[in-house]
Specification:
Structural class of chain A: mainly alpha
Shape of chain A: globular
Distance between the termini of chain A: 23 Å
Number of strands of chain A: 3
Radius of gyration of chain A: 20 Å
Number of helices of chain A: 9
Strand content of chain A: 5-15%
Order of helices and strands of chain A: HHHHHHEEEHHH
Oligomer: homotetramer
């Protein structure tokens, strides 16, 4: 297998560029920093938001924690019934998803001036792949109601090459393989119980009125470029 | 929000191009076609392979089946404790993952002339993100042994922006959000029990000797280009 | 196989007695009635309790709902990847556990005069099987902290023939086979978020101060008699 | 709370008797011994049976392993996102169920002279709670087909106070709380793949022809006595 024969010129250029992205400490665990979170909305109490941010920070801590342990845990006697490696690896994914989804959630809600333009990419894609924008909304709300302590996510599906919604339970159950998330809503009871008790419908409606479409639009732009790559362009 | 202001020229070009990809029947369910599968290897009996392909075809059938049902199921009275929408939606993801992972698996095994070149992108990336190529191999095997009727996958992690391995149980448990799969190995008992009984280690070793690196290389090329987009290039 | 030879006199007597318990409508679905719930405690707000009872009533409704559907759903073309029977059957267990655990929970908390006597069976059994009563308490609290939207339960384990604690996620994950529950605590976020936000430790401590030991004692009495039967007495 | 006031004479007698069952080493982990397994049937190859028994022995080993670790693991800093206690506790239940279900399975199959008598308790109870014996069989087979790498179990349901079938995935998902198992069938792929490949229906039919009703009858006798206790007799 030969480097020069295998790759297109474009690919080689990209490779040379990305090789410059040096990872200096390859054996050290990935250490994520909690992002600054600022959610201002009349629809959530500050006690709720403050607690939610602290939950997020714990996912970051536990993700770093598991990631560091995996550098030194025994990999020679692993088995599926019980082994430290399995337990830590499973929890790494759980906490990583918890951290990632919360970051995407916090940054795509709380826009009091929320508007989606009909000529935005977001609108066009939701319109195209769900039938109409309203069909997307109905499907997204249905997914939200269906989630059992989890999430609803609109994502680019790299397998079907289209945008779809999914229902995630907890952080890592029922997750599609090959997804790039663009719109993320938290449906754990901790997201709404303080302010809405069991009325998750009211919470979900409120949140959807203040989706931060400027942030979502940038995700759709990246998603569409990813889709082009998947399609082999 | 204005279309022209928001997007770079490149993004607009991509959008115009992809808008040409017409989805004529937006309301019709996605209907996947089973791919032709041909796995020739001394390490698996033909009875085993033949049965495995039939299992894959059932995932395709059930994915189409659930996808079609979701077009007409009631979305107004959905709830998380029990509703047709939830059940079908969860099973859509299960079968979609089952179909997708099997396609990736079948096409990346069974290469009797398997060789990985040290100047391939695959080698360089595994080397960079796991420490050494051997470290990747050890981690991949450990993940394989840890999987409880499921999969081990090397994937581009869009959150950490690096290549990682994950342990999936069944098809949709413990799945990382934001993953692009590049190397896929089936660890369900149906993959090896006929030929290896409970000796999944022997099966895994055999399979890894015949990874189809030419196919994997193309996935890494796409993954690296996706990574560039994620990083904002 | 002969009725008279197989059974002891005692067994025959029991059989004759229980045969009198007529189930008149064998083909009709089991229809559970929600029990009257009255939880009075300074440790939970009435809004919290009221919402919690309504959640419980929904589990009852959904249990009856799934149970009724199972009487008429097609059983000839069932499969594990996707079928109505599977979905409804899984949800029957989920909602049945949700209903049962809530009934056990509501009736074993909120006793402001809570005291456990050292000569009670509860005390003697916890003492015997956990080392000391305090050891039981430490283990129970640890299980409570470990639960991921679920339950901690002290139960008679029919396999080990001893009392143990378990950590249940949601309602039906990580559930021991062959358990008879005696002490039940709800650790879903809906149980405490309104009043304690994410401080589940404070909630758990408060609840344990008001365990209704009179109710628990009766459960231990039954459990011990069951244990005698399991042991072949 | 007073010992003498609380208990019936019968309960006191039982308590006094069972107190004699001394547990000498309360702080030591439960250490299970693998039971001798002998399954002789034309429907399973000896390679299959031999491998199956070895899988069972690993569950016993891992159950003892987790149980021992729980004696010394830190219980003060447990949390639900990631902690050693949680991981080991979850795996204890997984392996305990794996061990228990396999014991029940091995001992209730492989009876070449299998016959169920119409005047047996087994027959009468299945008949009573499922409508007819054939209805039980249809439901049991449907549950078997619905199981996703798991089990189908006929059990006494202590909540509904009747016999039901359930579909368990893996060993500890979708397990009813308060169940006493009476008929147990393994539907993991390891149970049949060697001999039947993906034709689990043929495997299930074969197994059901050789259910060991003499063993099952004794379980029903115990179950019925347990039911009497639950009912407050």
């Amino acid at each position: 297998m030969n480097f020069d024969d295998l790759l297109t010129e474009e690919a080689k250029k990209i490779i040379r560029e990305t090789l410059d992205v040096k990872k200096e400490n390859v054996n050290e665990a990935f250490a994520a920093q909690p992002k600054q979170v600022s959610v201002k909305t009349d629809f959530l109490s500050s006690a709720n938001v403050q607690n939610h941010v602290e939950l997020y920070e714990d996912y970051i801590e536990k993700f770093n924690n598991t990631s560091a342990k995996l550098d030194s845990v025994d990999k020679s006697s692993v088995n599926s019934n019980h082994s430290g490696f399995r337990s830590i690896k499973i929890d790494e994914t759980f906490n990583m998803n918890g951290a990632y989804l919360h970051e995407l959630y916090f940054s795509n809600i709380g826009d009091a001036q929320s508007r989606i333009s009909m000529d935005s990419l977001s609108f066009m894609r939701l319109n195209r792949d769900f039938g109409t924008f309203d069909d997307w909304q109905r499907d997204f709300i249905a997914c939200g109601k269906a989630s059992r302590c989890g999430w609803v996510v609109t994502y680019l599906n790299m397998y079907t090459q289209s945008y779809m919604n999914c229902v995630i339970d907890l952080h890592s159950e029922n997750v599609p393989v090959g997804m790039y998330p663009v719109i993320v809503m938290d449906l754990w009871q901790h997201a709404y119980y303080r302010d809405y008790l069991k009325d998750s419908d009211a919470y979900l409606s409120a949140m959807m009125k203040q989706l931060r479409w400027s942030v979502i639009e940038k995700r759709f732009e990246k998603a569409d470029r990813i889709l082009n790559i998947i399609r082999g362009a």
